[in-house]
Amino acid sequence: MQSALELDFEDDELLYAMKCARWWSDSYGKACAIGDPFESGEYIVGRWKSFKSFLAKLGPVRERPASAFKQFAFGAALVRYNRLASDGESADPELVLRLGRASKGHGDYEAAVRYLEGAAKSKRDDPAILAELADAYALIDEQRASKALFREAFFINPQRIDVDFLESSAFARLTEKVAEIGKEGIESAEWIPVLGELLGVFSVKRELKPVEAGKLKQSIYELETELAADGSRRAILVPRLINRYFWLIDHYMNRKEDKSKIDELLLKIKLLDPIVYKQYIA
């Protein structure tokens, strides 16, 4: 393969594919040397994330070879996770999450939905599972369910969601917008629900139960207290607070609460981020 790569190919897509094959040959060999199927599957999925960085360095993405190697990687991981399911561990929601994620990456979206719905029933408040299920719903064009679950997942805890595995077009555009405003690293995940609200991506909402509204207010109080006492986590706390203000405003509007309560929250958003405030009230 090395000698072939040194040839002057006229077919750029073939050269691109051969570079991808060379990259994966070493990683796949190492995966096969790992005896434990779970660890081997995790290794392959982890290498997929590294492979995405490798593709970015190759220049414009060639969709056919990139898609083929994506199917290869997640298909190989799926085989390993299925071994564990066959061994009687199929009820483990963490394994079911991985079966769903790998099925999605392999291109079997219907199977991904089945797995992830099962995982969500076992762990209803797991943001990673909800985000993966939202992504799978988007890929089968269940947009309403997708938007509702994305909103829910990123409210619970954005830091527990691995956005590298989310591939639906609407979510990809949202992450691009977050990057455009200069947010990166762990901070970027916190801004996804803020921009999701502003851009109408997280537009499917539900009414809060009284106990949920009480927990939301308590969460806001705790975040405000932390922000006032210690600014070391401001980059995370500001967007998280703004998102909770959005939720509480929606709750007040649904319950037709006094306008002064909403105005108080709008003022808090304005003080935290005037740009977000202007976009929100526009």
The biggest beta sheet reads: none
Cα-atom radius of gyration: 22 Å
State the total count of DSSP E strands: 0
Assembly annotation: single chain
**Per DSSP, what share of the residues sits in E-state strands of 2 or more residues?**
under 5%
Described by the principal axes of the CA atoms, the overall outline is globular
Question: What would you say this structure looks like, in words?
Answer:
This protein is an all-alpha fold and 282 residues long. It has a domain at 204-282. It has helices spanning 2-5, 12-32, 37-57, 63-89, 93-106, 109-122, 127-139, 143-156, 169-180, 186-198, 210-229, 234-254, 259-272, 274-281. Helix 10 runs parallel beside helix 12 (234-254). The radius of gyration is 22 Å and the shape is globular.
Summarize the structure.
The protein has about 280 residues and is an all-alpha fold.
What's the layout of helices and strands?
Layout lengths: L1 H4 L6 H21 L4 H21 L5 H27 L3 H14 L2 H14 L4 H13 L3 H14 L12 H12 L5 H13 L11 H20 L4 H21 L4 H14 L1 H8 L1
Primary descriptors:
282 residues, 14 helices, mainly alpha, 0% strand, globular, 77% helix
